Amino acid sequence: MLRLMRYYWRTEKHLYLRLYLGLIGIYVFLSLFSWILCYFFSPSQMGGIFMIFNFEWVFWGFILISMAHMFSSLETKQRATTLLALPANNLEKFVTRVVYVTLGIWLLAFAARITANFIGATLLIFDTLFMNGEWTLSQIFYYRILPSTWSVFYVNYGSTFILGFLKYVLWVSLLALWPWSLFTLFGILFRRNGWLWAIPVLFVGAFIAYLIFEVAIDGTWAREHEGLVRTLFAAFILLPSAFNYWLSYRCFRRAQVITNKTTRL
Q1: What is the percentage of the chain residues whose pLDDT exceeds 70?
Q2: Interatomic CA distance for residues 1 and 88, integer angstroms
Q3: pLDDT digit string (tens) for 117-128?
Q4: How much is the pLDDT for 134?
Q5: What pLDDT, on a 0 to 100 scale, did the predictor assign at position 233?
Q6: CA–CA separation, 1 vs 6, rounded Å?
Q7: Phi/psi-derived region of residue 193, left when phi > 0, alpha when psi is between -120 and 50, beta in every other case
Q8: pTM given for the model
Q9: Could you say which of 16, 135, 141, 158 is the most buried, measured as most Cβ atoms within 10 Å of its Cβ?
Q10: How many other CB atoms are found less than 10 A from the CB of residue 241?
Q11: Cβ contacts of 251 within 8 Å, gap of 6 or more
């Protein structure tokens, strides 16, 4: 599997670099656009605008769309032949590809966001280093360079920040597992724009989860049986995710390179 990952990196490192730079460009553009809008709208109006032009939407949207394109090499005969001719069985190819793209795209998106935040904090860092600014470098790192939704762990956990951060990453990864598996399935099932097919299913699934865990389950009972509720919630995510990945593997094995049908089967 490591040899397959090294092969993917050799053949796709320039693509990852372009994605990294492009994502930074999107983040910087959104920051500048929001800064310009501040001159035309009141703070209360900007609250709604920030909900639309939010880095979180870009971050997770980029990751999910990338999940749907992880097997884009099957779209042409030459690239599909190269992939299928690699010295590994189909299961190893599938698992390696899923792990490589999932971790790689997540790290790429995270690095691009940190870089964009660093660019935005450049003037503040200059002011601190050379103009005796009020901010310290550690404050700039935790509150301006780290994503705002993550810097809260520095406040809540203090010296155990790393532990809190890792718990947060594990929890978010669990929540994201089903969307990742869903977009992977639709990306390999449909020959074009599989992510567009996955979006309505994602919203329906999220709505069903809301009805079950926020409406159907009584809040008092949930607090009294917190461990059971967490177990049910984990099963609600893990079981459909495992099914999606299993079905994705079945589609990968049966994928047809040249076809006029909407799907690859």
Answers
A1: 82
A2: 8
A3: 888 888 778 777
A4: 72
A5: 80
A6: 9
A7: left
A8: 0.83
A9: 141
A10: 20
A11: 185, 188, 189, 264, 265
